[in-house]
Amino acid sequence: MSMAMADFSHIPEDFESPTEVNSNGGSPKAHTVANGDSVQSNITPASTDRYGFLGGNQYTDPEAERRVPQETVRKRETKWLDMFINWDKWMSKKFKKVKDRCRKGIPPSLRARAWQHLCGSHFTLEQHRGVFEEYLKMPGDPKCIDDIHKDLDRQFPLHEMFLSKGGVGQEALFEVLKAYTIHRPVEGYCQAQAPIASLLLMHMPAEQAFWCLVAICDKYLTGYYSPGLEAIQLDGDVLFGLLKRTSPVVYKHMKKQHIEPIMFMTEWFMCVYTRSLPWTTVLRIWDQFLCEGVKVMFRVGLVLVKVTLEGQENMSQCPTFFDTLEKLRLRKLAPELQDEEFLIRETLRLNINERDMEKEHQKQIVRRKQARESKERESGGGAGGKHARKAKQK
């Protein structure tokens, strides 16, 4: 992957766009991702919801929450427990059934165990017993450690685990993020990892969350947290290419307003929607994401852009570049359009398959390579440019 950094000069100052932060020995390693956890002061629930939130955008109203019948939950739990016994067999010979069960939603009581099996972190942990504890004994990079400390109280401040500064939740989050910087010192610390690590800690102990984070960074979001944001730029262009196929009118509207994908989808992808959607929807997306991979992020992204901008009424509300970007921040998206069942159903209805995504991915890689080579020729770089300069001097 090779592409010049995107031009952010025309992004509004108050837009939550990615910026690079020096976080590892003087090199740009951490990329600021907007908090996205706007506190709604008018929400004062008597107690936490069943996910641990006291308020804010992630709070789930118990009276409005859709509940799966208890009998159905018990049946699903039994099926998942059976799968755990012969996990390798299910994944190799009955993966379609595993995928179908993930799409229906993993039983909450087994979600942590299922996620670890799906991403393979359970097996990695068994092979590396004691490594996490060893990482915690190491000092770590001072710059990374300082940046992590600054971010601890910004992660889901209205969740019971992370309310108290220096509390158990924040301490566990620090341990997971610090251990990752030692495990992957070249990457250092990226702020977008913090909400992912926080979500994992809501479901499992620190050591398990750490290895799950490692698996996600290594297998799913490869290169996302490396300097330059090249991987996320590539996936942004892939998303745009797929949007051209699924919603050509919306694509044309965004191109006309010179909106680049990295301006609105960065937080979606880098944080795997943990900062962008209702919590029940986030968990359902994660059930599929850890089973099927990054294609789930693309499907969700395509549906979100479609329901946000498609249609004459939506278009009329976005006459300018700023209006369209504000819409894509999803803050005013109708609740029914963020509903878990609606979004999952719409993603599965998209006329886009894995082959289409891979084809678009390869197309964008070639396009980037050609753009880089063209730029090098124009700047006189490379062997061709050197020969041309020598010939001119003679």
Description of the molecule:
The protein is mainly alpha-helical and 394 residues long. It folds into two domains: 19-67 and 120-220, putative rabgap domain of human tbc1 domain family member 14 like domains (Helicase, Ruva Protein, domain 3); 230-361, Ypt/Rab-GAP domain of gyp1p, domain 3 (Cyclin A, domain 1, Orthogonal Bundle). It has 21 helices and two strands. It has a two-stranded antiparallel ribbon. The longest helix is centred in the last third of the chain and has 25 residues, at 354-378. It is globular and about 50 Å long. The two termini are 37 Å apart. Residues 1-44 and 383-394 have low confidence and may be disordered.
The topology string of helices and strands comes to EEHHHHHHHHHHHHHHHHHHHHH
Largest sheet: 2 strands, antiparallel
For the largest sheet, list the strands in their spatial order: 1-2
The dominant shape is globular
Quickly give the structural class.
Answer: mainly alpha
Low-confidence stretches: 1-44, 383-394
What can be said about this structure in brief?
This is TBC1 domain family member 10A. This protein has helices at about 70-85, 85-95, 95-105, 110-120, 120-125, 130-135, 140-150, 170-185, 195-200, 205-220, 230-245, 250-255, 265-270, 280-290, 295-310, 310-315, 320-330, 335-340, 340-350, 355-380, 380-394; strands at about 20-25, 25-30.
